[in-house]
Amino acid sequence: MSNDKLSVALFGFGCVGQGLYDVLNHSEVFQADIARICVKDPAKERRVAASLITFDKEDILNRNDIDVVVEMITDTEEAYRIVSRALGSGVNVVSASKKMLATYFSELHELQEKNGTALIYEGSAGGSIPIIRTLEEYYDNELLSSIRGILNGTTNYILTRMELEGRDYGEVLKDAQQNGFAEADPWSDVAGYDTLYKTLLLSIHAFGIVLKPDEVLNLGIQNISFADIRYAREKGLRIRLIGFAAKAGDKFRIYVLPHFVKPDDELYKVQYEYNGIEVEGAYSCKQTFTGKGAGSHPTGSAVLSDISALTYNYKYAYKKLNKLRRQRHEQGQTGNDLSLLDKDFTLKVYIRFKSKDELARLDIRHVEEEYRSPEVNFIIAEVGFSSLYALRDDIGQNLFVCVVA
Amino acid sequence: MSNDKLSVALFGFGCVGQGLYDVLNHSEVFQADIARICVKDPAKERRVAASLITFDKEDILNRNDIDVVVEMITDTEEAYRIVSRALGSGVNVVSASKKMLATYFSELHELQEKNGTALIYEGSAGGSIPIIRTLEEYYDNELLSSIRGILNGTTNYILTRMELEGRDYGEVLKDAQQNGFAEADPWSDVAGYDTLYKTLLLSIHAFGIVLKPDEVLNLGIQNISFADIRYAREKGLRIRLIGFAAKAGDKFRIYVLPHFVKPDDELYKVQYEYNGIEVEGAYSCKQTFTGKGAGSHPTGSAVLSDISALTYNYKYAYKKLNKLRRQRHEQGQTGNDLSLLDKDFTLKVYIRFKSKDELARLDIRHVEEEYRSPEVNFIIAEVGFSSLYALRDDIGQNLFVCVVA
Q1: Facing B290 at nearest CB: one of A30, A143, A287
Q2: Which tens digit of pLDDT belongs to each residue from B90-123?
Q3: How confident is the model at residue A294 (pLDDT cuts 50, 70, 90)?
Q4: Which among A138, A308, A309 is the nearest to B305, CB-wise?
C-alpha cells in the first residue's frame, strides 16, 4: 500500500458509488479515500470535482498508486476486462457484479492465485447480509449440509404483493417497476438468473464447487399466475423463489426453483424486498440470516465492508475449493466440477400447464394429485430431476413449476 | 500441534460433550480427536472407554500433548481456574461459559496476549448463530451502530407461550421447567443475567468496550404478569427481553431490558426458544440473524465450529478492543471502560407497580399515560436512565419495567 490510507478507484458512479464517496471521503474514520472515478457518460452532471472523474479506464488501470478498484458497472464483459486487468497488475478488487463473477469465476480465481491479489464480493449475494464471509470463515466444510435462500429482492417483492393484495403477476410487476423494485427489463430477476448467479457464488464458498451458469437449473416466476398463489394460500403456504445447494453423498444438489414454504419455515417470514438465507449444519441446526436484498444501500453497505476488510488485508482463503480440488486430484478425477452435480433424484413438484402435451418432456414417476378446470390444470407429482434440468434451456410460456416440500 | 489431528481434552461430559465425542471420534473428516475427558462424578456411568475418563483436572493440565481444552462445566470459578491454567501453559481453549467469560474477560484477554494462545467462545452467545465471529470479522468498527438481541431462549420461550396461550408467568415457567426449557433454578435466565453476560461479550466484539456484569443494567421478566402481556396484545405488540448495545457519540449505551416490539420489527418474529440478533450498520442497513438459542445441539454446533476453527489456527484479533484502547491511551484516558458507558439519557418505559411509593426511586421526567384499576396500575413515562440503572441492585418484586419503542 502506497500510504496510510487505501487509495480507491471506482468504476461506475450510480447510487452506490455516490454513497461510498460521501462515506469514504467525508469521514475521518475510514482508512480509504476515493482517488479516481471512471464513468461512461461525459454529458452527465456529477456532484464531485471534475478532476476526480475520468472517462477512460486506462487512466485508472495504468496508474500505479491505486490500491483498490471497486467495480460496479452493468456491462458484464467490460466488468470482466477491468477486474482481470486490475487483479493481473497487483491491484485488489471489490466487485458486486454477480453475473460477471459467476460467469468468469475460474479465470478470476486463477488470476488471484497467480498474482497474490484479492477479489472480494460480499455485495454480490445476499444484499447486506454478510453471507459469503460467514460461509467462508465460519462454516467449515464438514459443518455444513445445505443452504437455501431467497436471494432476489425483486421476485420476493412481487410474490409478497401478489399474495397480500390478491393481484396477478403482470400488474404487480408493473407496479414494482414504477416503484423501483424491478428493472425495466426484469428477465434476469424473474426468470431466476440473478438468483442463479448468487447461488453459484454461495456454492463456491459453502462447498467449494465451481459451476457455470449454464450448468445449473434455474426456473423462475416468469410464468406464475394468481391461480398458483391462490392454491398456496388455500394450503396455508407461500411461494418463494429459492436458490438451493446441498451435499448429497459425494455429490451436490444445486438448483433455483420456486418452492412452497410452510409457516414454520424461516423463509416464510421473509417478505417484500428482503433476502433470507438458511444455513443447515452440524447437529442439524439451522441458522437464518435476513436483511434487505435490493437497493443501493444494502449493496453499498456490503461494498463498504469489503473495502474496509481490504484495509486489513483480508482475502478469501477458498479453503473448501482448495480442499475439494485436492480430494478430486487424489481420486484421479479430471475435468470441471460438473460431474459432482447430482441429477439423479426426484422432486415432488406442482406443475400448472395448459395442455397435457406440455408435460411430455417431463419424467413423471408418480402423480399424487391432478386438478382440471376450464381455467386451471395442475398436477402434483414426483418428477425425475434430469427432466426438469432439461427445461432450463426453454420452459416455454405455459408451465409453472413449484417444489412441494 | 503434536500431530496431524488436534488432540482435544474435554472438561465436562454432558449432552454437548457426548455429542462432540460422537462427531469427533467417529468421523474421519474432522482434524481433531478427543484424547481425555475430565468429569466430576466418579459414580456416574459413562458410555466411553474408562481410559479416556479422569476425575483429576491435573491429569489434563499437566500433560503436554493436549492442543485444545474444551471447557463446558457449570462452576464459574473452577471454569476460570481451568481456562486460565490452560491458556497460561500454551494450550488453546474453547469455552461456552458466558458467565465466566464475561466476569473474567480482562484477565483472560491478558493471558491470551501474554502467551499467544487462543480462547474462542462462539457457543457462549447466540446459540448456533455465528455472531461473535461475524461481529469480529465482518463488521468493522465504523460500520456498526447498534446490536439488539433476543439472547436467552428460556425467557423467549416463556414470553411466547404466555402470549400464545394466554397464561400467567408462574404456570408457564413451571411447564418450561418440566419440558427442559428452563432450569430448576431459573433466576439467571429470567432475571436477565444470562442475557447480560452475552450482551457484554457481544459488546466487546462489536465495539471493543469491556464492562463487568455488575456495571451494566439488567432487568428481566421475573416480575412479569399476564396483565403486561395483555396490554402488549391489545396494542398489537409483543414483549421481548432484549440485550442492547449502541454507539452514542463517543460513548455507548448498553443494557438488558424487556421491550415492546412491533410487528415490523424482525425480533417480533423470533418465537419460542429461538434467538435473534439485529445488527444495524452503515447506510442504516439492518441484518438479522436467527437460530435456536437454548439446548445442547446449538451449543454443540458452535463449539464444534470453534474446534474446527482452531484446526486452522483461528483466533480473535480483538481489533476493536485494541483500537478503542489505543484511542483512549492517545486521549490520556486511564482506568476501565466504565467511563464510556452513557447513562445520561431518558428511556420511554412502561412501569407496572403496586403502590405509588415504589416509583419514588425513579427519575420520572414526563408521564404520558397513567392507568389505575383495582388489579393493575401502570404508567408510561420518560425516565432518566440513571435511575433505572440504580434498580439493577434490587428491583423488588412489584415493578415490571418494559421499554416502549
Answers
A1: A287
A2: 999 999 999 999 999 999 999 999 999 999 999 9
A3: low
A4: A138
What pLDDT is stored for residue A293 in this prediction? 82
Predicted ipTM of the assembly: 0.88
Q: What pLDDT sits at residue B22? A: 81
Residue A3, pLDDT > 60, answer no
What is the Cα–Cα distance from B358 to B369, expressed in whole angstroms? Answer: 17
Residue A184 corresponds to which cell in the numbers above?
Answer: 425495466
Closest residue in B to A264 (Cα–Cα): B271
Residues of chain B with pLDDT under 70: 1-3, 141, 284, 294
A24: nearest CA partner in chain B: B142
- β pairing state of A32-38 and A6-11: parallel
Rg (CA), chain A: 22
Domains of chain B as residue ranges with CATH? 6-120 (3.40.50.720), 132-297+337-403 (3.30.360.10)
Please give the single-letter amino acid code of residue A264: D
Contact A301 B282 (CB under 8 A): yes
Helix (H), strand (E) counts: chain B: 14, 16
The answer to whether B307 touches B122, Cβ cutoff 8 Å, is no
Q: Which residue matches cell numbers 454461495?
A: A202
pLDDT of residue A143: 80
Q: Do B305 and A140 touch (CB under 8 A)?
A: yes
DSSP annotation of B221: S
The answer to whether the beta carbons of residues A26 and A13 sit under 8 Å apart is no
Pairing of strands A286-292, B53-54: unpaired
Strands B68-71 vs B6-11: parallel, antiparallel or unpaired: parallel
Cell numbers for A152, please give them: 432476489
pLDDT digits (tens, 9 = 90+) for A255-281: 999 999 999 999 999 999 999 999 998
Higher pLDDT, B345 or A302: B345
Predicted local distance difference test score (pLDDT) of residue B15: 82
Nearest to B282 among A23, A134, A269 (CB): A23
B53 touches chain A (CB under 8 A): no
| Strands A238-248 vs A377-384: parallel, antiparallel or unpaired | unpaired
Instruction: Quote the CA–CA distance of B399 and B387 in Å, as a whole number.
Output: 13
B142 lies within 8 A of chain A by CB: yes
Residue found under cell 483480508? A314
Residue of A nearest to B275 (CA): A287
* HSE-up (13 A, CA, CB side) for residue B67: 19
User: Could you tell me whether strands B238-248 and B144-150 are parallel, antiparallel, or unpaired per DSSP bridges?
Assistant: antiparallel
